[in-house]
Amino acid sequence: MKTLLAALVVLSAQFVGAHYTLPDLIANGTTFADWLYVRETANHYSNGPVTNVTDEAIRCYELDYTTTAGDTSIATVAAGSTVGFQGSIFNDDFYHPGYFSAYMSPAVPAANSASAAESSTWFKIWEDPPVYENGELVFPSQTIDQITFTIPKNLPSGQYLLRGEQIALHVASTYGGAQFYLGCAQLTVVDGGDGTPGPTVSFPGAYTGYEPGILINIYDLPADYPGYQSPGPAVWSG
């Protein structure tokens, strides 16, 4: 009995350790401290995911919907520069197989405003989908601990929210099984262009949870599987 209990404790610790947060903004060649420019998320202790795509938490997963934004600093970055998120991960990589993406939204009245980006203003700037090879999905970013990408050069200057997300798919074969790990950084973008980002979506609203890239059994793909279909809008590259 004691042996079984010990095994269950170890298994539980491994399960929790496999979860993660995205607390650190990467910008200007620096990985910044936890929650300095990223809104502290409600899972900052548990590391647990969002699983309900219709919940307000799917936007930025804030610890508090009224005070967290104002307690978070705003980083200045240039359009065309490399930014990203460093994960806080027990085993040093994004253990769960999944789909990564990054979104941005103009932040009105400001990036540190709790009411910013509550409507259909989010556009996708990057994605890293699994690759279908030899009858199975391969997940390129499963063995890294950070994601980086480029802010489109033609993005107009101004204040924005930057939303990094992984949709973990290891238990996504039933509705509500996909796990969303995400964080929102607060930015002022300078040296921008005159592009018109789009298409735009809202959070919640961007996903129904029934998309083939969200509701999927990655371990039992059909013989006629067409390849991974990314959820959400197309990427705007500027």
TrEMBL record:
Q: Which residues form the Auxiliary Activity family 9 catalytic domain?
A: 19-221
* Catalytic activity of the protein: [(1->4)-beta-D-glucosyl]n+m + reduced acceptor + O2 = 4-dehydro-beta-D-glucosyl-[(1->4)-beta-D-glucosyl]n-1 + [(1->4)-beta-D-glucosyl]m + acceptor + H2O
Major location (coarse): secreted
Indicate the family of this protein: Belongs to the polysaccharide monooxygenase AA9 family.
Output one GO BP term.
cellulose catabolic process
The signal peptide stretch is 1-18
Subcellular location(s) per record: Secreted
- Short name of one Pfam family for this protein? AA9
Which protein, by its recorded name, is this? lytic cellulose monooxygenase (C4-dehydrogenating)
Tagged with keyword Secreted:
yes
Q: What are the leading ranks of the lineage?
A: Eukaryota, Fungi, Dikarya, Basidiomycota, Agaricomycotina
Cofactor(s) the protein needs: Cu(2+)
The keyword Transcription is assigned to this record: no
Highest taxon in the source lineage? Eukaryota
GO MF annotation terms: metal ion binding; monooxygenase activity
EC annotation from Swiss-Prot or TrEMBL: 1.14.99.56
Q: What are the record's GO terms for cellular component?
A: extracellular region
Q: Which UniProt keywords apply?
A: Carbohydrate metabolism, Cellulose degradation, Copper, Disulfide bond, Metal-binding, Monooxygenase, Oxidoreductase, Polysaccharide degradation, Secreted, Signal
